[in-house]
Design a protein that fits this description.
11 strands; 43% helix; 399 residues; 6-stranded mixed sheet; 2 domains; alpha/beta; 5-stranded mixed sheet
């Protein structure tokens, strides 16, 4: 009974301690909640918010009630998955996560029928030993996994097997076996012809790989020519033993662009920088040779060409009528504003649109802004806490 007068003091002390504990929990939950929210937005949600703005272009003249099948195609290029030689672990983690989230978000939102990657899948494929190659392929398959209803077709680039002087049968065979690719392949989903080429095999020097690729190219040319002359009187005579292909002018896909002097005529926010546009292209290195380009146009007579390699966007006309689209890199490592091309394609018509991904600068800006705001919040809370303690100390000081 003699300590009854201490009960109110103890209750007051407990209330004060509980109040302080709640304040600390609120402070910590606010900090960690804000960090998680910013992280979730920058690493997951932002990809959906940006890509959801993209939509499939409509093919002019094709109506919903029309029976003509429309193929929805995504074209991307130059993913450059880093290897064990030049790939810093943080660089790998950051850029490959960006590509994985971009790709998976695009698949979920857009539901394409087929995806083409136009070469330079890996950054160090030309140097990779078998163990490193297997590791890189496993990472690629994880990043670019896709549902059964979406087909993924991968083309070869110079970073996958080396430039022509560095290309070997072993490296090419390894790539072909992994990705079911052939140096000169005709695929025809929904009756739409796509010709897939190995740009490094179009050197024209009669090397073993080049000779095989050119022979395959001629066979494809014969198939396409026969498909064009089905109404011709000599069709049965000339094309009797030729495998039938759909009647559709082909779309040419490869890693190198066809010959052009430079990117000086290219426009758009994702075209090359003014300094890069002044640089003249080197044949068989930056672009195909003029001879190889003319031969491709003559043999295949494509209606559209898509390529990669330059990491920047460009659109040019060949022979005044055949458009070529250079697809920018898909990776932040090669450009701040990556993108991919969306195509709605029928056997006779097509319509293309570009879909931009989140820019790396935007993500960095969000993180920096959030860091400044959180730091300001922490400092303000600390200052308030110090002021409260000083005020509390003055109250308890005896008069």
């Amino acid at each position: 009974m003699m300590f009854k007068h201490l009960v109110p003091l103890r209750n007051g002390f407990n209330k004060e301690r509980t109040s302080r504990l709640k304040a600390r929990l609120f402070f910590l939950s606010t900090i960690f909640g804000s960090i998680l929210l910013v992280f979730f937005f920058c690493e997951f949600l932002v990809y959906y918010l940006v890509i959801v703005k993209c939509s499939w272009p409509e093919v002019k003249g094709a109506h919903k009630e029309d029976s003509t099948p429309v193929l929805k195609v995504m074209f991307l290029a130059d993913t450059h998955l880093l290897g064990e030689i030049r790939g810093h672990w943080l660089d790998k983690l950051r850029r490959e996560w960006q590509m994985e989230r971009s790709y998976q978000s695009a698949l979920w939102l857009l539901q394409p029928d087929i995806v083409f990657i136009l070469g330079d899948v890996f950054d160090e494929g030309k140097w990779s030993i078998p163990q490193a190659w297997s590791s890189d392929v496993a990472r690629f398959q994880k990043m670019f996994r896709h549902p059964p209803h979406t087909q993924l077709i991968v083309l070869v680039g110079n970073h996958d097997i080396g430039f022509h002087y560095d290309m070997t049968v072993y490296k090419l065979s390894r790539f072909e076996k992994t990705f079911n690719f052939t140096s000169g392949k005709l695929v025809s989903p929904k009756g739409i012809n796509f010709v897939l080429l190995n740009s490094m095999a179009l050197e024209g020097d009669d090397c073993h790989i080049c000779r095989a690729a050119e022979d395959q190219l001629r066979r494809i040319s014969i198939k396409l020519n026969c498909s064009r002359m089905r109404e011709h009187p000599d069709f049965q005579k000339k094309c009797k033993n030729v495998e039938k292909t759909p009647v559709s002018a082909p779309i040419l896909l490869q890693h190198y662009p066809l010959y052009r002097i430079s990117d000086s005529e290219c426009t758009g926010e994702d075209s090359a920088s003014p300094e890069e546009k002044k640089v003249l292209f080197k044949e068989k290195y930056d672009v195909l040779s003029q001879d190889a380009s003319e031969k491709l146009l003559q043999l295949l007579q494509p209606r559209l060409i898509l390529s990669g390699h330059t990491h920047s966007a460009c659109e040019v006309l060949h022979q005044g009528k055949i458009p070529e689209i250079s697809v920018p890199s898909f990776s932040w490592r090669n450009r701040n504003n990556p993108s991919f091309i969306m195509g709605s394609i029928t056997a006779t018509k097509y319509s293309l649109a570009k879909c931009f991904l989140p820019t790396e600068n935007t993500i960095i800006y969000i993180y920096c802004t959030a860091s400044v705001l959180l730091t300001g919040y922490v400092l303000a809370c600390l200052w308030l806490c110090i002021c409260q303690r000083i005020h509390s100390g003055r109250k308890q000081k005896p008069i």
